[in-house]
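seq as requested:
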Amino acid sequence: MKRIIFGLLIGCLCLTQFSFAAQRRQSWHSWIQDVKREAIAQGINTALLNRVFDGMTPSQKHLRLDKNQPEKRLTYLKYRNTRGGAYRIKLGKREYRKHKPLIDAIGHTFGVSPYFIVSIWGLETSYGRVRGRHPVIRSLATLAYDTRRSAFFRKELFLALHILNEGHIELHNFKGEWAGATGQTQFLPSSWFNYAVDYNKDGQKDIWETYGDIFASIANYLVQNGWQKGQPCSIVVSLPQRFSKSLVSLKVTKTVGEWQQLGVKPHVAINPNVKASIISPYGGPDMMVFNNFKVLLKWNYSIYYAGTVEYMARKISQG
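struct tokens:
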């Protein structure tokens, strides 16, 4: 029996090693050559590709970060008050005053509150102070070479190469966080192509250093994903006893008036005809959320993040 079990274990081990070897049957060097050939076919400059990939090796650190992302069970209020703390709000007020004419003009053009533009900027990169130091191409190449999400990151890699090829940023400045998001907006290359704006009309969509492009790109992202000018984001509500948990969901939408008929009590006056959903983030409070809140979720699918954006925007607007 022991021999049978041992044989089975050896067989499983061999299958596992074979599976891993099959996934990795192509060497890094060979894989890079394939990427370069495909990039050349897409019109990317050969000299640029040689300069980009010369001596590059995959980063084991990026693979560890991708496979072992920490998850912390924080309450919503703890998250909000940490990420959107007093110091970050103070900086936000200062940065808004510094760039007020530009941010107000962009907010007016796009129909987006300037305070939300500043809030997202602050949450993403602490108003440009913390952008990440990882070379974007190496980050994306490493994650594309890995088999876990190779198709997604391979697409992002080619888009990043096009950004370089079009001269929107120099290679030595093309840096970001570990998964390839870059600039003061922390856009992935696909988001750059879909939403970045050349606000100052200089031929470059510069989300790294040009404030007009940075602010306009944030505003454009929101508008293109359905932002409604002057509409609410969320309000705190009180739920009645024995309120059905099945109704507490972003997928359930009713008018404010219909929610009130079910016993939901908004803490502030609100148009009864506006559509909303009810959510109860861990640690409270119960909230009624509207279209613009759901737009923020398209930026980052986290009710903690969306709620913190609104909270900071409101605080920055005060005074």
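Residues 29 and 57 are 9 Å apart (CA to CA).
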